[in-house]
Amino acid sequence: MLKNDEIDIQNKYISKLRQIISGKKYYILTMGCNLNENDSEKIAGMLEKIGYNKVDEMNKADLIIFNTCCIRENAEDKVFGKLGEAKKVKEKNNAIIALCGCMMQQKHIIEKLNKSYPFVDIIFGTHTLHKLPEDLYKLIVAKNKVRDVIDIDGEIYEGIPIKRTSKNKALVTIMYGCNNFCTYCIVPYVRGRERSRKAENILSEIQELAKKGYKEITLLGQNVNSYKGNGYKEIYTFADLLRAVNDIDGIEIINFISPHPKDFTDDVIDAIRDCKKISRILHLPLQSGSSNVLKLMNRKYTKEGYINLAKKIKHEVPDVVFSTDIIVGFPGETEEDFKDTLDVVKTINFEQVFMFIYSKRVGTPAEKMENQIDEKVKHERFERLKQLVEKQLEENNKKYIGTEQEILIEGVSKNNKNTLTGRTKTNKIVILEADDSYIGKIINVKIVSEHMWYLKGEMV
Ligand code: SAH
Ligand code: SF4
Ligand code: F3S
Q: If you count Cβ atoms within 10 Å of the first and of the last residue's Cβ in the chain, which end, N or C, has fewer?
């Protein structure tokens, strides 16, 4: 069946449901990464077309959806905790409970849910997200419990309605899946093989966003720099795509996550240098600073290779800063290996470091590796890394004081309703006092003080 036909079928289910559903409310809890955020925006798009309205409190909902993540054990634990809460809402409101996302692609999880959480009405996976209208119809009209999970390499569905969370910055998925099989990682097993969207679909989505007033976009994929274009407007590579996006009027800031160091080719560096809209903070996931551990992780670069790449990028694009992901306590990581990680952190002086304690994932090669690291050692290493990162963060923040920065004002700050919040081109949160009318605009701000996780600024 053609993929467009699939979406037509779902549109028919949307029309049928629209006649039954009115005044009903939905609640979505999204766990995990930006790809899941973007998927939740599509779920919200389908539900709003059916006639559901969004609520922010679970206990007011008629339909509760958890979009799950399984990247680490604590992400999975969270879902089981929240299911208890959802069950109470179901007993009170007769709410429908639906689970979806990466965690649902794992057989042992489905078995556990079916055995111990039979009150879950709908389960769908990452490959069947577009079928939510059909799944809801089967449950509501045919009164059948739905288990709609398939294990395939994956397809791409265009034309799913989308309800975006923000009015000025948007997520745009450019490729799905992953072929890298880093030995610790569950993603290739739950998201399928790498597949790139057609360049014309990506560009028309971004042009539409620009027309609606969106200023900032983030291109998403597990390995964005292995993007493969279909030749539309001569777009074949990720670098070609970056240049084409940079040409779209109205878009002012372009981010992308995540690139893989092994695929960071020179043409991508040249595109970053030439395209001024591309953010000057680059996420370059390190994972470990030890060449031995990197080999065991199947990352396909060495400590020196990573440092040289960062230096080459910095040489071509001097105003760039880096952020990264690091895992501590991978099986076999010695004190020496860990010191290599600290050494790279010192050398690169990252602007932001996302730190994780290694978590065993069912079915991955690292799960079976010997020399799993003791929990106490993992935590102790995590603390040492955290201390180094926080010290560097404080020093880096000080460099901003007195400088002028271009900031996209995103909205009212959560903690103080009298202030607005935005980000620098290097992704630092800036809080300032200014009129609501600046929301969605890019303005010049002078940084006056630093507070670890944010900077304070004044309009100039
Ligand atoms: N595709 C992205 C990563 C997506 S997952 C990339 O390659 O950079 C986000 C981060 O979670 C990874 O970068 C890694 O640091 C971390 N992560 C993945 N699997 C993990 C595991 N089993 N235990 C701990 N952290 C993990
Ligand atoms: Fe996981 Fe590696 Fe793929 Fe990233 S590149 S999603 S870490 S397997
Ligand atoms: Fe989690 Fe799936 Fe993203 S496992 S990190 S939500 S791709």
A: N
How far is it, in rounded angstroms, from Cα 275 to Cα 430? 24
Q: What is the 8-class DSSP label of residue 89?
A: H
Quote the ligand 2 centre to 288 CA distance (angstroms).
13
**Mutation test residue for ligand 1: of 223, 356, 368, 389, the one with most atoms within 8 Å of CB:** 356
**Sheet containing 352-357: order of strands:** 281-283, 321-328, 352-357
Tell me which residue has its CA closest to atom 2 in ligand 2. Answer: 182
pTM of the entire predicted model: 0.95
- Give CATH for domain 3-148: 3.40.50.12160
* pLDDT tens per residue, range 38-92: 999 999 999 999 999 999 999 999 999 999 999 999 999 999 999 999 999 999 9
**Which atom of ligand 3 approaches the CA of 31 most closely?**
6
Q: What is the pLDDT of residue 3?
A: 74
Of the candidates 326, 339, 329, the one whose C-alpha atom is nearest the C-alpha of residue 377 is 329
CB half-sphere exposure, 345, CA atoms < 13 A: 27
Q: With residue 305 as reference, give the H or E element that holds it.
A: helix 303-316
Q: Domain 404-459 adopts which CATH fold?
A: OB fold (Dihydrolipoamide Acetyltransferase, E2P) (2.40.50)
